[in-house]
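Q: What does the predicted 3D structure of H(+)/Pi cotransporter look like?
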Amino acid sequence: MAGDQMHVLSALDSAKTQWYHFTAIVIAGMGFFTDAYDLFCISLVTKLIGRVYYTVDGASKPGSLPPNVSAAVNGVAFVGTLTGQLFFGWLGDRVGRKSVYGMTLLLMIICSVASGLSFGDTPTSVMATLCFFRFWLGFGIGGDYPLSATIMSEYANKRTRGAFIAAVFAMQGFGILAGGAVAIGITAIFRSRFPAPPFAADPAASTPPQADYVWRLILMFGALPAALTFYWRMRMPETARYTAIVAKNAERAAADMSKVLQVKITAEQAEMASPVDKPFTSKPFGLFSGEFARRHGFHLLGTTSTWLLLDIAYYSQNLFQKDIFSAIGWIPEAKTMSALDELYHIARAQTLIALCGTVPGYWFTVALIDVVGRFKIQAAGFFMMTAFMLALAVPYDHWTAAGNQIGFVVLYALTFFFANFGPNATTFIVPAEIYPARLRATCHGISAASGKVGAIVGSFGFLYLAQTPDPAKAAAHGYPPGIGVRNSLFALAGCSLLGFLLTFLVPEPKGKSLEEMSRENEAGQP
C-alpha cells in the first residue's frame, strides 16, 4: 500500500487510546484468565484427587495419582490447547476473527463446569471423564491464543500496541490469583465445617467424604468470569484490518473502524486501506510458498523455537512447584496433614509465589514493552532465567538444608518474575505483529502450538526426569529412576540459554505499524 492507500490504517495506528481499548483488553483477556485459573487449579487439586480416589487401606502414606493418570490429567488439556491453537488460528484467517471468537469462550464455560461434574463409578471412569472435558476445555483455550492476540494487535495503535497485547496476556496473573483465592477460600470453609485429623492419626478420617466436592467446586468456578464476558465478546466488531485487507469489504470496514476510532469513516476512505486492484500487487502468497519462506521463514523459526523452549522451562516448574516445595521442606509431609490441610498449604504457597514473582512480571512487561522493546525484554528474560536456574541448581544441597528454604523460594520466584517480564509475554505478543493479515492468526497459532509442545514436554518430561536416581526410592512413588531435581534444573537452564540465542531470529516491532512489520506495504503481499 502506498500514499493515500495507507490513510485509514494509519488512522488506526495513530488513534488515541480510548475506553474501547480497555474494554477490549478485559473481554479478550478472559480466555487467558480461564487458562491460568485452570492450569493453576489442576496442579493444586491433583493431590486431593489422589487422596479421594487412590488411597489404599492400610497404606503408610496418603493416596496419590498413579504416574500415568497424573500425566494424563495434567497433559490432556495441553493436547487440546495445541489442537485448538492450530484449528482456530487457521479458521480465524479463513472466516474472520469475530466469527469464531464467541465459540472458544463458550467451549471454556461449558467444559469448566463439566470438568467439575466428572462422573463414574470407579476412579478410572471419573478420571476418564475429567480428561475428556479437560481436552475440550483446552481446545477452547487454545483458540483464544491466536484470536485474542490478533484482535488486540489489529485494534491497537502502534505506540501502545505492545502494552495492550501484553495486558490481555497479563489477565493470566489475575487468573492465577483468583485460582489461589478460590482454592484457599473453599478449602477454609470445608475445613471449618468438616474438621479432619492428620493422615498419621487416622488415615480413613483424614479425607472426609465432602472433600470430593472441594476439587469439583474449584474447577467449576473457572467458568464464572468467562460467562460474565460472553455477551460483550459477541458484540465486538470484526477488526478493520481483516475486513479491509483480507475480506476486502470496504463498507463493513468503514463501520468497524468508526466503532473503534469513534469517528465517522466513509466506505470510500476505507477502500483506500484495501490493496484491491492495485496494479503492482502480485498474486497473494500462501504459508507454504517460497515467498513466505523468504520473507518470514526465519521469523517463524524464531517465534516457534523460542516459545517451545520457554514453555519447556516454564511449565515444568509451574506445574510441579508443589513437589519442589515438598522436597525442600517448605510444605509439611503429607501424612502429617489431612487432605484439606494439604490442599490449603499448597494453595497458599503457590499463591505467595504468584503474588511475589509471577504477577508483577506481567505488569512490568505492560509498563515497559513499548519503551524498552520486545527483543531486549525477551533476551534479558531468557538470560536471567538461565542465571537463576543455575543459582538454584549449583548449590542445590545448600538450599535443601534446614533453614535455607527461604533463599530457594526467593530465587525460584525470581525465575518466574523474569519469565513473565520476559519471554512468557513477548513470545505471545510478537507473532501477532510481524506476519501478514491473511496469515496472522495462523502463524500465531503455529507459534503458540509449538509452545504447547514445550508445555507437554515439561509436564510429562519433568514429572519423570525430576525423580530421584535411586531406583528403590523412585519405585516407591511408582516412577522409574530419573535424574533428580538438581540435574533437571540444569536441563531447564540449558533450554533458557538456547532460547536466549534463538531470540536473535525475532525482529523488533516496537513503534512500527503492522503493515510495515509484515511488509504488506510492498508489492507481492496478500
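A (community wiki): The C-alpha cells above were generated from the sequence. Residues 1-264+289-518 form a domain with the Growth Hormone; Chain: A; fold (CATH 1.20.1250.20). The two ends are 11 Å apart (CA to CA).
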